[in-house]
Write a structure and sequence with these properties.
Length: about 250
């Protein structure tokens, strides 16, 4: 279940790419499949161990092009252990809403992105997220849970003002290139979960809707694909913003 559009990101085979806050690795796997040199970065060692295992299985089963590479790296998003301008493309999907010092994390993302490179950031969309917070305190008060709700204007402002130009001059280091929405079918599921209790997996409505989402992911039926395209711009649970770091002479 991908949130980021890699064609829009401009991903090409052989490029060095970072999946910051990789979690279970869904975006890292797709970038590896497309022939990139991937680094899956996260704080959770157990998650990364599973990602590394899947990387190995993908290579053994011939799912990746010759020359593609993939590795994991554990660390802190506020101090990325990478050189300035090391990555051609960066994905940070559903992670900034968990980080208190989000501006510091964004500044690090900008630092390790090469001039001319592109960045995709996804966060929960404002309206679906507000509804979740109104329906349930448990949804966002859990350890490691969401600590803020972004508007598009706030996040665009934070990213475009992060970092420095190549000559060290502070300024608007990133250019906003557009936004998209994803997972329109998933927003109602979380509204149901928040209404009946986020840990209440036995609720009939939550259980039935979950089966629908599993069917969507596993079988990708055309009816649900079309429904998703209709719902994404209306109630898509995730907002995806795309940025480019300009070349500076």
């Amino acid at each position: 279940m991908l949130t980021v559009d890699f064609d829009r990101l401009g991903l090409q085979p052989g490029e060095r790419v970072l999946d910051m806050g990789a979690g279970g690795g869904r975006h890292a796997f797709e970038m590896y499949r497309r022939g990139a040199d991937v680094v899956a970065f996260d704080m959770d060692a157990d998650e990364l161990a599973n990602v590394l295992e899947v990387f190995g299985a993908m290579k053994e089963q011939g799912e990746v092009p010759a020359g593609a590479a993939a590795d994991i790296k554990q660390g802190d998003a506020l101090q990325l252990p990478f050189a300035d301008g090391e990555f051609d493309r960066i994905v940070a999907a559903e992670v900034l809403e968990h980080i208190h010092a989000d501006v510091d994390a964004i500044t690090e993302l900008v630092r390790v992105l090469r001039p001319g490179g592109t960045l995709a950031i996804s966060v929960p969309r404002w309206l679906p997220e507000v509804i979740n917070w109104k329906l349930s305190d448990d949804y966002h008060n859990a350890p490691g849970g969401h600590i803020r709700i972004y508007t598009d204007h706030e996040l665009i402002d934070k990213v475009t003002k992060a970092g420095k130009f190549n000559d060290g001059t502070p300024g608007d280091a990133m250019v906003f290139e557009g936004k998209d929405y994803a997972h329109g079918l998933h927003a109602p599921y979380w509204w149901i979960k928040c209404a009946v209790g986020v840990t209440n997996d036995d609720n009939f409505f939550a259980r039935t809707y979950h089966k629908l989402l599993v069917w969507e992911i596993m079988k990708q039926p055309k009816t649900l694909e079309y429904a998703g395209k209709v719902l994404d711009p209306l109630i898509g649970k995730s907002m995806v913003l795309y940025f480019r770091k300009p070349d500076v002479a």
